[in-house]
UniProtKB/TrEMBL annotation:
GO terms for cellular component: extracellular matrix. The keyword Zinc applies. Ca(2+) 2 binds at residue 219. InterPro entries: M10A_MMP, MetalloPept_cat_dom_sf, Pept_M10_metallopeptidase, Pept_M10A, Peptidase_Metallo, Peptidoglycan-bd-like, PGBD-like_sf. The keyword Zinc applies. This is Peptidase metallopeptidase domain-containing protein. Residues 165-329 form the Peptidase metallopeptidase domain. It comes from Phaseolus vulgaris. Keywords: Calcium, Glycoprotein, Hydrolase, Metal-binding, Metalloprotease, Protease, Signal, Zinc, Zymogen. Zn(2+) 1 binds at residues 229, 231, 244, 254. Pfam families: Peptidase_M10, PG_binding_1. It comes from the Eukaryota. Residues 1-21 form the signal peptide.
Amino acid sequence: MIKPQPHQLIILAFLLSFSHTNVVVSARLFPNVSSFLPAHAPLGGAWDAFRNLTGCHRGENYDGLANLKSYFERFGYFPHAPPSNFSDEFDDALESAIKTYQKNFNLNVTGVLDDATLQQIVLPRCGVADIINGTTTMNAGKQNETASFSKPRFHTVAHFALFPGNPRWPEGTEELTYAFNPGNDLSNTVKGVFASAFARWAEVTSLTFRETASYFNADIRIGFFSGDHGDGEPFDGSLGTLAHAFSPTNGRFHLDADEDWVVSGDVTQSALSSAVDLESVAVHEIGHLLGLGHSSVEEAVMFPTISSRRKKVVLAQDDIEGIQFLYGSNPNFNGSTVTSAPERDTSDGGRCLTCVGSSWSVFTLLTFSTLYFTLL
């Protein structure tokens, strides 16, 4: 039997790795949804059942509180509690979590599940946690208030916040490339929405963004996925967590393929009650990719939640101050935002592999190469 050459093993391992990590997912993308459902269709979301908890307060047991505790744990408000231990008791820990949540979202701090609090909780939102390692990026983190979980790790300036350790793309970075998961087979129209989202950040900073066809070599890798997709942050269906992105220099940007994404047209006039504006979510997640955490400023694109049938793409002053703190200002920025599409590179070559690539891919390649060689 002829032994394969080392370069053949690497190619085989690459193909195996690609096939296991890039399952084809058909995202729900609508250019115009006005004809799909009648007007005022009932709105249903992943967390709608929480509406039944209105009025719940400390000292009682209520069916469904265990699920609410899991929600708070997911977004950092119960950082040390194992989900298996959650009960339906409205205990001191839940009251404390609710108060921290209410402060973060500019609500009356009562510790009670009032109507306004639950209306905020059930909104679609970003999957990135509000509190990381016990420290919130939002209102409750100001003046080094940390919800009594651990020592402060978030650096806050004005209202905006940065991730722990203040990660950013390396000093001197002028251009970042981005690419789309080939398994999604996105149209040029959909890709153009992301180009516009990147352009909004490029208008106010020294960074530029360029599309490349080389997915594994790109600085930023974008894909639509359903449910558990291997990064420890599973999606939950319509109108739950819409998307999530990782801090620099990870580069992963994932969107829930089960959402009803509106690509163009006036999303605010959509007859589809679950319609989500793609560009609005893209602009928010790009902020995370560049190093911004969540903001308590409701007008900011870095605010964690967004209602269905709403468009929110214009950077607020808080967003601009945050990104310019990290990367400086675009010398051509005059204080207003005008979107222009960045350069697209659809060649197969793209850029050379950067240090931020994906270490898991190298490990997978080595593992498959070793396994294949052993079996020969």
